[in-house]
Amino acid sequence: MTWLDWVGAGGASVPVLFLLLYALRRAKSIAEMYLKAHLEARAEREQRATMVAMAASLPEGGAAACFEEGQPSWLFYKHAEMGQRAVASREAA
Fold first, then answer.
1. CA–CA dist 55, 76 (Å, integer)
2. Cβ-based neighbours of 48, under 8 Å, separated by 6 or more
3. What is the tens place of the pLDDT at every residue in 12-26?
4. How many helices (H) and strands (E) does the chain have?
5. Nearest 5°: CA angle at 16, between 14 and 22?
């Protein structure tokens, strides 16, 4: 009696086990890609929130820019009037 008989696969189901292994490897890579995308999105949200808070703390309004690789990637603007929201824009950069 072989180990395949113990797990109930029998000798003819070896290709099925390889297919299962392949499917598990693909599922793992998909999960890793999803996790990477999620972590990148979360880091970008945190960076944007930090920069908006920084722009909001400007005492008399103004603009601030965030640069990535020498190019402006975000533009943050705060109105000089009280009560106005700080605005973040990736397109304006």
1. 6
2. 74, 88
3. 577 777 888 999 999
4. 2, 3
5. 110
